[in-house]
Amino acid sequence: MRINLGLVQPDVDVFWDLAPHDLSILDYILPGGLDPKTVSASGADPLGAGKACIGYLTMPLASGGIAHVNVNWLSPTKIRQMVIGGSKRTLVWDDLNPQQRISIHDRGVDLASTQASTSITERTAMTVSYRMGDIVVPALPEKEALGNMATEFAAAINERRAPRTDGAAGLRVLSVLEAVSESLSSGSAVTPRLEMEEFVA
Questions:
Q1: How far is CA 187 from CA 52, 98, 200, in A?
Q2: How far apart are CA 164 and CA 28, in angstroms?
Q3: Is residue 115's pLDDT more than 90?
Q4: Which domains does the chain have, with CATH numbers?
Q5: Helix (H) or strand (E) holding 167
Q6: Could you read off the pLDDT of 117-165 as tens digits, one per residue?
Q7: Could you say which DSSP state residue 8 is in?
Q8: How far, in whole angstroms, is CA 138 from its chain's centroid?
């Protein structure tokens, strides 16, 4: 969720303005990078600005997971938050809380299946249990994001290595944003076109 009041951009919609940050984060943390099966976007323009000012993006992932992005220029409150649910823990990132930017929650739902059969049919019964474990808040150094980016870029040049986020990562994010625009126009899910063979590093 990346929402706030403004700034309404003159040349792009809310997806192209705000979503690249979260798509880049997803590309970095997902194994194999950002590779959604499809992209479904819906947007609203209550201002009559001629572009989406509120947007919702849903992406089923090739891994079987799902990613959902909520962006908004019209919210009276500013929120920069990401919830990442894993098989063992859930991570919550809150960029506006410097004392607790990341919290790791040992809380969730566990399903245990028991097979029950009858002479007529066989069915699967699911037993739901709720896990209420600890919350861990790791101590993180406070560093300026743009400074970190410039440092990594310089280190990649000096060490003659690929940067952590390279042009291919940027292309994956752009392919999703283009699919978002196409989905908004068509009103249906779109498969991103990632033409890596045309990318020159």
A1: 13, 39, 32
A2: 8
A3: no
A4: 2-81+142-198 (3.30.360.10)
A5: helix 167-186
A6: 454 444 455 688 888 899 999 998 888 989 999 999 999 999 999 998 8
A7: P
A8: 21
Burial 125-135, CB ≥16 within 10 A → b, else e: eeeeeeeeeee
Q: How far is CA 145 from the centre of its chain?
A: 18
**pLDDT digits over 164-189, tens only?**
888 899 999 999 999 999 999 999 99
For residue 189, give the nearest of 66, 93, 48 by alpha carbon.
66
Mean pLDDT of the chain: 89
Most confident option among 13-22, 83-92, 139-148: 13-22
Report the residue count for the chain: 201
pLDDT band, residue 20 (cuts 50/70/90): very high
| Of 70, 16, 61, 56, the residue nearest 34 (C-alpha) | 61
SS3 readout for 20-59: HHHHHHHHHHCCCCCCECCEEEEEECCCCCCCCCEEEEEE
